[in-house]
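Weekly sync notes, structure subgroup
Attendees: PM, AL, DS (notes)

Item 1: joint prediction request from the bench team. They want all two components modeled as one assembly rather than separately. Inputs as received:
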Amino acid sequence: MAVFDLDFSLRQGDFTLDFAVRVEGRAVALFGPSGSGKTSALEAVAGLRVPRHGHIAVNGRVLFDANQHVDLPVRQRHTGYVPQDILLFPHLDVRENVTYGRRDGNRPDLRVLVDLLELSTLMDRRVSSLSGGERQRVAMARALYSGPDVLLLDEPLAAVDLPRRRRIVDALLRIRDDLAVPLIYVTHLPEEALNIADWAVLVDNGRVVASGPPRDVMPSD
Amino acid sequence: MTSDIRDITIFTALAALAATALMLVPGVAVAWLLARRNFPGKSLVETAVSLPLVMPPVATGLMLLWLFGRRGPIGALLARVGIEVVFTPAAVVIAMAVMGLPLLVRTARAGFEQVTRRYEQIAETLGAGPWRVFSTVTLPLASRNILAGAVLGFSRALGEFGATIVVAGSIPGRTRTLAVGIYSFTETGQDRQAAILVAISLAIAFLAVLASNRLAREA
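Output from the run, pasted for the record:
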């Protein structure tokens, strides 16, 4: 069980994201319509966006605190980030992508990761030859191999064909349960939040409107 | 081909290669700074780097002569340790590097600007420090443009005339390059020799620009 303290405010042009929530869970879904600020929240945790003020901590480790002038560099945050556009390094093959992260710490064994995400036949392929689902799995392996304290996923099913989504969902469940790496992921699909998350945060127009167990807070329709 | 012409061709190619090597590290560093960083005086640096493109090359040569002459700020320091630059092959290389640098910087800068910043951010989330991000992500992704810029800088160096003749002269067997040779042979009525050098220059320049364009297209 991971504890996320997310209480911060950031501005992007005319849009202001005011995020204030304390979450305990193994898998947290940030759920809400497009443009509601979910991705910005995820990127604030990763350190790719700097809040104007507030506090961000994962399991008590402070990543950002405006009052205490703490703003850990991105590379020291230990967050595995898989953006929606995936962004595998195009000049490296799959194996080089997966093993790019070199941080010491709770890095999973490469063989375990390859089995868990079913990558054994992909390792020597060029990334340009991968399908959407394969790219997603490689990106998750790359993030996990860096030994993150938390895996941040932005719409992990968005680039995946409908029939192959089950495979990604299974992979996420194995990451959550077998590797015991906590997840925060952005989604706009209610069933995705219900299937994977044990906590859901509803975001709308830059604000948290509800937070709790998915069945209690997700819209029923 | 007479030994004169062969020597001039080989010397010019080697000097242009040395000039390209000399401009590569500072050129790539300046290109990256201009593409990725904001700093006070950035527009001044941008302008200064491009000056050799628009200034009369002879004026650039005169400035180099002043800088590297025995009483110049750099020349005086070098003279103390027994190094003379003016009217030596080193002067040819320096003149070529200064004239080729703007082309390398402009092309490499465009290459860096094309590298999506987000690839670098992902590398940072994976624990990579600034040097590792640069050497394993930014530089490889911009490498075709850098190579194209280096080929352009090399081509410009091959054809350099104005700055070279002022700072290095036209000493046969020592500082005479293809461009300077064409001028000297024409002036002394050796039209056939000059025509051969023109043909060689044309062939090398054609191949270099072709290679540069191909690299930039594939980037």
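Discussion: Residues 3-218 of chain B form a domain with the MetI-like fold fold (CATH 1.10.3720.10).
Action: AL to compare against the crosslinking data before next sync.
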